[in-house]
User: Fold Acetyl-CoA synthetase (ADP-forming)/acetyltransferase from Stella humosa.
Amino acid sequence: MAAYPQTARASATGDSPADLRRLFDPRTIAFVGASEDPGRNVARSLQATMWAGFQGRILPINPKYQTVFGHPCVASIDDVAEPIDVVMAFVGPDRLLDVYRSCRGAGFFIAVGDIVPKGSPDADRLAQEILALAHSGWPRIVGQQCVGIVSPETGAAATISTAVDETGLPRGPVGIISQSGGIVSSLIERARKLGGGFSHLVSSGGEFDLTTPDYMRFMIEDPATKVIGIYAESVADYAALLAMGRLAQARGKPVLLLQPGRSAAGAAAAQSHSGRIVGDRQVKDAAYRRHGIVVVDDLDDLLVGGMILSRHRARPGTGVGVVSLSGGYAAAFGDRIHDHGLRAASFSPPTVARIKAETNQQNPANPIDAGGRGRPRAGYLDVLRTLEIMDAEPDVGATIYAETLFSYMEDIVDGLPQFARQAAGPHLVCWQAGPMVEPVLAALRQQDVLTCTDPHTALSALRAFYDHAALAPAPTATDGTAAALPSLPAGALDDGAARDLLDRFGVPFVREAAGDTPEALVAASGALRFPVALKGDLPGCLHKSEAGLVVLGLADRPVLAAAAEAMAARTPGLSGLRAQEMVADGLELIVGVKVDPDVGPAVILGFGGIYAEAMGPPVIEMAPITPAQADAMVARLDPKGILAGYRGRVLARDRLIDLLVAVGRLAAAGGGRLKEVDLNPVIVTTEAAVAVDVVVVAGSSVP
Assistant:
């Protein structure tokens, strides 16, 4: 086979992303083992390439045939004179390696099956050999265990996907990278059902060679791709993935990620409270957010959420406006808005006045019931006018027309597409009915209106839209004053070492006195304000209360002396005693650090005390954090404003922000040398935010 002029190949580590254009916009696609046998994948693949409208050369390779599906067939890949861009091989596993070795100079090799035979005694050696070839003049490998690529933008298809048929391909602005071939096929079919389309889809499979970040880099540079959707069951290189997320964010291309099976097992092994309440999944989600990647929960989010983001960016309003001709459906839809972490928009007095005056609706509560006024054929006019008014409401970020069945429903096709095109924010149609409404939905899709058949699809996609709007860029620099992490022993630090570590990084701690004996403690406590709490330091004990090492409410020094002597007598092995001022009438919070081995350290903020269960889960941000990010953490944790009105007093939010930033500095300096940090509780008063207890667990790799 003639050698193709060699260039640097695509790589997430810095090579030119333009090289993958040869994969998604090939001139020649070769099919080794070509056949018209309908029972073989190769026949399906050849037909898919033709059905996709591929304008390049289709090159069947098989010594048994003269032609395959009307295309001239050659006996061997060695007989091909011109360069080949993409090779698909449909041969037995015992021959696949030999076919690959014969493809020097080809652009890409799509491995539908395993590139190295399963059970081979030399599997590791063969894998390294093939990877070395792939990086030295032989084709880069797509897969293994994949369905190939489909490119509606270029008309190219080298795939065994059953979703590619005579009906053509849904073309649009969303690029898809999926480790599951079935997901690729399903998304193509869902686009036919819901509307929207794709620039390119690649089934990356087992990612033997090319990986998700490689494909991301191509799509970031590709002008036809406006949004990138990823389905990833595993990530081999988090650093590369997050780097591509940052690059996409810098280029203004949203990235949506569906990642099933992200384990929370790490929380089960945690030694600190904050480590137990936050698992690996939450930390990785925080890392994705920090690096411009939106995590979604459903397959349709990649399509519908991607289409929304390809057309719209965030508006100042963050509410959802909904209108329906069914009062019952409007009410039910309102509940689902809240279930998806969204909120129904609040209408300003001018908006309420306009709705009343221009649509004759006297109770325009959101979601709006626009039906039931005895004008069955004119109802859609009220819907359209209501949507236009809602779209102009400052608190509305997106609108939904939610519907069931009604007379003359086909009339809505006359005006709804024009509204959707002109709306300032995203607009979705959610029509939860059956076959009777399908002609209406098909007519709307034909005019580029995004349609859904259930509330979950619509609202989950809007959740992705709002989550993208909430992304903040990663900090570009630190303040340059962070202290270095000292050498630490592996395991849980004793109380003195943990407190010294907090002091080094400026984390405020409650005033206390310490002593090795009861007498020394009492002598050191002269500057404290009573009442105080007595705490005993016992090596290896992380939870003092359960061990009887905490005594509260000691009113004066004689009472402290008696309590300290009693604790020392009943607890052999104490390494020290501490007396802490008791912080009265403050709000208890939990602040911690959890270090994920893949993505690094995260800062955790949650409610403690009586609010721990009632106020929802903690919030997480990757370290380090800026004051603005710390402030956003507080806002996410406390949307009800407890800090602003705790028992009628305004608590020191600014001091809490300072504490969070300091903990973030500690976490960032620790890198992989810290496992967990737990400040439980942190008490916020009107004047201060201070840690009361601390647990620090260092990693086993500490120097």
